[in-house]
Amino acid sequence: DQLQQKIICPGPVTCLTASPNGLYILAGVAESIYLWEVSNGNLLAILNRHYQDLTCLCFTDDSSHFLSGAKDCLALVWNLYNVLQAEPSQIPDPRHIWSRHSLPITDLCCGFGGPLARAATASLDQTAKLWEISSGELLLSVLFDVGIMAVTLDLSEYHMFCGGMDGSIFQVDLCAWPVQRDRTFQTERENGKVFKGHRNQVTCLSVSTDGSLLLSGSHDETVRLWDIQSKQCLKTMNHKGRNVLISRILTARGCCCLTCAALGTPGPVTNAFIVLAPANMFNPDGKPSVPLPKFSRHLHGTESSDEPGTEGVTLRLGLHQQEPGQSYLEKAEKMYSQMYSTREKNLVGDQEHLTIQVSELEEEVSNLRKINKDLFDFSTRIITKPAK
């Protein structure tokens, strides 16, 4: 329970996320995205491509890309490698700009697969949309009766769960037939796919790793745990306190439920998610092995007057390294490009290699035809040979 580090940010933080590999932290401050490196606290980039305040941020599972959503109705997909390689004076371009929403974006969720994953966006325009990160194409758009405040996918990505402003939670089947890109969720016809229990807007959703439990937080100051199959509420946790972090262990399933409340006594739940319980959680003497450094408020490489006496060696991979040769990030990007080219060759086929194969097969067919003709002529001569 001891405070490890107090970090003063450049302004009020509207959204915050950490990369799955634990190397980077993203924060949304007004219209800007701040990227810090956790190991040394360096501020690596400040991205200004949104026109209104940030509302949500999330990483892909391999930490290679991250997504940002804002009140300007835009969702942007960023390549982390390009962001790290860009000069401090330049703002890198996002990989994709999704502008199909007509009202502010409220939540983002990214599936599994790294750059090949699918991402879901929720908006006040009463729609939830499913996108493909690799191509940037819109795969599905679902229209609801209310504005959508939260969205998440199960591990198998068979279902998309959407939390509405009226407290309802909708379950959308992603494998429904026939396949339609634009779909309308009609509540009166989908009674078996609606979770009802919250009395105010749903702010956050999370699915357990086995796909059987759904966790939801709401402005009604409660966190609910649902059985997805039966749509029954298994447990209701009321929030008491101000800016508190509550940890509850689901021992039967080996999971840990983390919930966080906003201002107020009690206050609306602003975030809740299910994670696997780390091993040191059950150790009362467990402490972080590496202290968290103080995060810088100035871009790395620029003069800073608020950090006197900084000592130590700072290593930054990429364009800022002193040694010649490829950096680790460049090697990783090259490996990714080779992987993609191999995949494309497997899907599309190498034209030159295919031409060679066709030529070899045609030559083999020609030889077989010649052999067949010789056998036919030989047999004909034997059969038609006059008897002695």
UniProtKB/TrEMBL annotation:
Keyword Transmembrane helix annotated: no
WD repeats: 47-80, 195-236
GO terms for cellular component: dynein axonemal particle; nuclear pre-replicative complex; nucleolus; rixosome complex
InterPro entries for this protein: WD40/YVTN_repeat-like_dom_sf (IPR015943), WD40_PAC1 (IPR020472), WD40_repeat_CS (IPR019775), WD40_repeat_dom_sf (IPR036322), WD40_rpt (IPR001680), WDR18/Ipi3/RID3 (IPR045227), WDR18_C (IPR026987)
Residues annotated as domain WD repeat-containing protein 18 C-terminal: 339-386
GO terms (BP aspect): DNA-templated DNA replication; rRNA processing
Entry-linked PANTHER family: WD REPEAT-CONTAINING PROTEIN 18, WD-REPEAT PROTEIN 18
Family to which the UniProt record says this protein belongs: Belongs to the WD repeat IPI3/WDR18 family.
Protein name: WD repeat-containing protein 18
Native source organism of the sequence: Lamprotornis superbus
